[in-house]
Design goal:
alpha/beta; Anti-sigma factor antagonist; globular; 4-stranded parallel sheet; Transcription Regulator spoIIAA; about 35% helix; 4 strands; about 25% strand; Anti-sigma_ant
């Protein structure tokens, strides 16, 4: 079973973005733990939180729901949530659900 690996925060300073590297599968079995890890991250984040998805091998609807929920929480705290480097399958899921228009992407 793959688990989500929320890597340690990478920050260069208070104006630099907070970057979290996710890996593994985001599904019904791992989404609860990911949600909690990301909520904890929000409390320490700079105004820009970037989720690097380059090592996410699978994401189902519960995983997408976590991303949307975290985005709402982030926005309420004045934090912008952005996604980076989704794999083709993840990009397709974001596009097909319309989330690509609501979750900003960064290079």
């Amino acid at each position: 079973m793959n688990v989500i690996d929320a890597a340690p925060l990478a920050r260069a300073g208070p104006s630099a973005p907070t970057i979290v590297h996710l890996s593994g599968e985001i599904d019904i079995f791992t989404s609860k733990a990911l949600r909690q890890q990301l909520l904890d991250t929000l409390s320490r984040s700079t105004p820009l939180l970037i989720l690097n998805l380059s090592r996410v091998s699978f994401c189902d609807a519960s995983g997408l729901a976590v991303l949307v929920g975290i985005q709402h929480r982030a926005r309420a705290q004045g934090i912008t949530l952005a996604l980076a480097a989704p794999r083709p399958d993840m990009s397709r899921n974001l596009y097909m659900t319309g989330l690509d228009r609501g979750l900003p992407m960064v290079a």
